[in-house]
Structure formats: C-alpha cells, structure tokens
Amino acid sequence: MSLFNQLVSRTIMHIPAPVVRFFAKGYIAGERLEDAVRVSRELNGRGIMTTIDVLGEFITTLDQAENFKRECLGILDTIDREKLDANLSLKPSQMGLLLDREQALANIREIVARAADLGNFVRIDMEDISCTDATLDFYRALREEFPGHVGVVLQAYLRRTPADVAALADAPMNFRLCKGIYNEPRTAAWKNQETINRSFVHILEKMLAAGAYVGIATHDEKLVFEAMRLVDEQGLKPEQYEFQMLLGVDEELRDIIVAAGHRLRVYVPYGESWLPYSRRRLKENPSIAEHALRQMLNM
Ligand code: FDA
User: Fold this and answer.
1) CB-CB contact of 167 with 133 (8 Å)
2) Is residue 23 part of a domain?
3) Would you say residue 286 lies in a domain?
4) Ranges for the Proline dehydrogenase domain (predicted)?
5) What is the dihedral of CA 226, 27, 255, 296, to 10 degrees?
6) Which ligand 1 atom is at minimum distance from the Cα of 267?
7) 80, pLDDT greater than 80
8) pTM summary value
9) What ipTM does this complex have?
C-alpha cells in the first residue's frame, strides 16, 4: 500500500465530510431516490441491471426503522412505476435488528410481501457477525413464505459460510456471494487475502453445484475469471447466475463482463447517510482517493 493510501486508511474517520464527499461522489447516486432512478435508467440503457439501496445502518430507534421501511416500500413502488430493471437491497440493522428482532422481521416481511405483489425481489445484505444468525433465520422464514422473491448475502471470509450453505440447501437458494467487508476477529473470519479468495471460489463452486442462483459480487479480476470458468464448466445459462459490482468501481471490468455475455447488476446506493458508507469505502480502498486526486490534477 502506498504511503498516501496508508495515510487515507488511518485518518479516514477524521477527514472532514466535504472532502469525503468529493472523493466518494462517484460511488453514490445522490441523496434522493430520483438520483438512484436516474442512475438505474442509465445503466439499464446499457444492458445492466441494478439493485437500489437506501443508505443507513445500525440505527438507534425503531422510528428510524419505520422510516427506512417506508422508504424501501417506496423504492419498490417506484421501480415498478418507472419500469426499471432493478430490485432492492436492504440491511437488517436498518430495519431494527439490533433493537427489536421481531419488529425487524415484521418490517422486512412487509417489504418482501410488497416485492412479491409487484413481481420483484429483495436482497438482504449481510452485516457484521452480530447479525449473521438472525439474518439467516429471517432469510429461511421469508423464502418459505415468498419463494423466489428474497435472497441473502453470504461472505467468503467467514469460516462458517460453507456450513451455512449446506444448512440452507433444503429449499431453492438465492445468494449474493462477496468477500465480506467488516473487521471480524480471526476466530470467525479468514484474514489472509489469498485464503479469502480460495474460500470464495470453493463456496461459489458449492453454491452453483447445489443449484443456487448466485449474484457473484466482486471486482477482483482473478475471482471474475474463476467464476467464468465455473459457470462454463457447469454449463450454466446466463439467466442462472449474475455478476454484481458496486457503482463507480472498475467500469472497464464491468464492460468486459457484459461484453462476454454475462448478466451484471450494479449496486446503486443513495441517501442522506452517505458519510459512513463513503468512509467505509475509502477505508477499504484508499486508492479511490488517489484516483480522484489524479483525475483532478490530470496526472
Ligand atoms: P478486492 O477488495 O480485492 O478488490 C479488487 C479490486 O477492485 C481492487 O484492487 C480495486 O481496484 C477494486 N475495488 C474493490 N472495491 C473497491 C471500491 N470500493 N472502490 C474502488 N475500487 C474498488 N460486503 C458485505 O460484507 N456485505 C454485503 O452485503 C455486501 N454487499 C455487496 C454488494 C455488492 C454488489 C458488492 C460488489 C460488494 C458487496 N460487499 C458486501 C462488499 C464486499 O464484501 C467486498 O468488500 C468488496 O466487494 C471488495 O471486494 P472485491 O471482491 O471487489 O475484491
């Protein structure tokens, strides 16, 4: 990691909001749902699907959860009205998981029920390990009630993930597989990048072999290659899986995936809570700041 990147990573929590906004603006659609609609429409026009996410997590009151639930219902209605090729991603903590588990499930249930009515789909994001068990329980309950309208995220860095896949294999499965973004203890998560990559491929192979629909969420060229190899080996049709990437990240790789005939979905976040999301992205990948700075200075 360059000195500049180390500096960004270490000081990110103290960098003033306007500076973070400057570096992160390409990774967020904007503050309002209409921004996410505009970005989704542009991407749809290029043959790319989206998943819309309203930013906000680890809330402190159930009123906030109620507001996020209403926002999510509004997103689903808007996708339907605007005829977008888009679905919804949400975070269980945003729905109140860490405040009142039953209420959080009720909130998510209402959203998935609306998605089912509209013929759409809800992806439940995966947060840190304080949320894993409950999130998987919610997924299990909701897929039984609304089959085909809900999926969950699994993280390749967690040692438990292969066992979670096996435990969920008693009904059709719909996963997003990603490396995992939270700072987990070594007892729970692989720490070495090479190990995490091997785990990703190992789990992806198991998921595809078990007939799961997988959103293969990575910008790592090695993993994209491995995923293409696996779908080819298993003779899967393009509608049996999809690649997924974050808005604003490695658009060249995005185009390569689409040009090769694979389906791709971009995660389109919007909302007023852009600061924690942006800080997380910058901490995870300080080279974002370096790229933006180079562009600004025309280097
Ligand atoms: P890696 O981090 O090795 O990145 C590969 C290359 O991609 C880097 O060298 C860099 O060039 C580029 N890159 C990666 N991330 C970038 C970024 N943010 N900005 C600019 N360049 C970047 N995690 C989680 O714990 N729960 C979840 O629910 C989700 N959901 C989710 C949805 C989608 C659609 C994606 C793509 C990712 C997630 N993640 C997530 C995040 C995921 O766990 C992981 O942290 C990031 O995708 C980065 O991992 P990569 O596989 O891209 O590899």
Assistant:
1) no
2) no
3) no
4) 39-289
5) -120
6) 34
7) yes
8) 0.92
9) 0.96
